[in-house]
Specification:
10 helices, three-stranded mixed beta sheet, 304 residues, single chain, alpha/beta
Length: 304
């Protein structure tokens, strides 16, 4: 019996909910060419995605700011458990994620399976660091006097993230997980051409234990949304990983706008027109985690 295909319209993820863009706009998403595609064949339609706007970005920042104190005050053990739960939910949706990565990046089934496995493992890797990085990065400082001088790491606040353009899932997880494990909240602008794995990740976040507003995901054009995030005075830091290769994005201009309000900035790999995405398949270090931390130094008199 024939039936009509029910094509999904993917929505934004803001404050733990899935709203449409306030602009009412959406755009068509097509599968990336694969080795099996015949020459001259028409692109394969996948779904419609919401096209986020400046107002959506402002709403996402408001949600992230509201969620940040509660998330930062959670115990390190609890945050680690929450990140591990995301890995569990992604594992249960592995077939869908594999298919979406194949469609987004034009990979073979085996290559897409490997990407999804690495993305799941990356959540576990950062979950394991949740109650350890403070010990590694902080410490008791020697001082001349009867005092304890202690340095401890604290989250910087709300982080804007331009998601990688090429790596639709592994790269995405590799920029979100290190930002939130320490207590930051994030506003993510997805790859415009490969947004579907990001919204499916949002569905995994919504059905795990991540509090609403900790991760906010906006699909759309980075060139339209990123300048407002860079200049927004309630955003404390920005990760420009996805500025490399994004249409209409001048990452140097974003860096300049960020400097005007004293944001922390993580640059893409390379410089200028030579900016590139990192190799996300490499085992990460702590640099992306430490990029969004502040160090607080406390003095305390020694008792007798």
């Amino acid at each position: 019996m024939s039936r009509v295909d029910v094509k999904k319209t993917y929505k934004l993820y803001i404050g733990g909910k899935f709203p449409r863009s306030e602009s009412g706009r959406s755009y068509e998403v097509y599968a990336a060419p694969s080795g099996r595609a015949r020459a001259g064949s028409a692109p394969r339609f996948l779904a419609n995605a919401a096209q986020g706007s400046r107002k959506d970005a402002r709403d996402a920042v408001t949600a992230a700011r509201a969620a940040q104190p509660g998330w930062a005050s959670a115990t390190a053990y609890n945050r680690g458990q929450v990140l591990y739960r995301v890995a569990e939910v992604m594992e249960s949706r592995r077939p869908q994620l594999v298919q979406e990565v194949r469609d987004a990046e034009g990979l073979t089934a085996a290559a897409a399976e490997a990407v999804v496995s690495q993305a799941i493992d990356r959540w576990v890797w950062y979950a394991g660091w949740s109650d350890k990085y403070v010990q590694i990065l902080g410490g008791l400082n020697p001082v001349a006097g009867p005092y304890f001088n202690i340095s401890a790491s604290e989250p910087t606040g709300v982080v804007a993230v331009l998601a990688p353009q090429e790596s639709s899932l592994l790269g995405l997880v590799s920029v979100i997980a290190p930002a939130i494990v320490s207590g930051n909240t994030v506003v993510v602008v997805t790859s415009a051409d490969r947004p579907l794995p990001a919204i499916t990740l949002a569905e995994c976040l919504a059905t795990s234990d991540v509090p609403g507003g900790v991760v906010n995901i906006i699909s759309g054009r980075a060139g339209e949304i990123a300048p407002w995030l860079a200049s927004h005075r309630d955003v404390n830091a920005i990760d420009l990983a996805g500025a490399a290769g994004a249409e209409g994005v001048d990452w140097a201009a974003l860096e300049e706008a960020s400097a005007d309000n004293l944001k922390r900035v993580v640059r893409p790999a390379g410089t200028g027109a030579e900016a590139v995405e990192p190799d996300w398949t490499q085992t990460p270090d702590l640099s992306r985690l430490t990029a969004f931390l502040e160090t607080k130094t406390v003095w305390h008199p020694k008792g007798r």
